[in-house]
TrEMBL record:
InterPro entries assigned to the protein according to its UniProt record, in alphabetical order: RmlC-like_jellyroll (IPR014710), RmlC_Cupin_sf (IPR011051)
Lineage of the species this protein comes from: Bacteria, Bacillati, Actinomycetota, Actinomycetes, Kitasatosporales
Name this protein carries in UniProt: Cupin domain-containing protein
Gene3D superfamilies per record: Jelly Rolls
Source organism superkingdom: Bacteria
């Protein structure tokens, strides 16, 4: 598959505050179409992963909203991303939605599948 839409992409994670749809897009990469409701904090779902953070790299584009990406501990250990920005998130991060967010994300399939499996095992 070389292209997909929201409706064509299978749901990988769905909660009251988040929906993540993921499919392989080519080679060893997957594309995820993600919606997070304002206040959604992925921290609890990532507990138990290395440093309780996502160990997978992501490249993407913020379609709407604004989110804070925690990258460590302390008041300055975060970055903010907003509508219209392309991004790279290295391993070691935790997203938290400051507003309703929608973004597209490209990630190594094996790494992302491990994270998705962990999140789904938390429920």
């Amino acid at each position: 598959m070389t292209a997909t839409t929201w409706n064509e992409t299978p749901v990988a994670v769905r909660t009251d505050a988040a929906e993540l749809r993921r499919t392989e897009i080519g080679g060893d990469l997957s594309v995820a179409l993600i919606r997070l409701a304002k206040g959604a904090d992925m921290g609890p779902a990532l507990k138990g992963l290395p440093d309780d953070m996502c160990p997978c790299p992501h490249w993407g584009y913020m379609i709407e909203g604004r989110l804070k990406l925690r990258t460590g501990t302390g008041p300055e250990a975060y970055e903010t991303y907003e509508r219209g920005q392309a991004f790279y998130w290295p391993p070691g991060h935790v997203p938290e939605a400051l507003e309703d967010c929608q973004f597209v994300d490209f990630s190594p399939t094996k790494d992302f599948d491990r994270v998705i499996g962990h999140i789904n095992s938390q429920g």
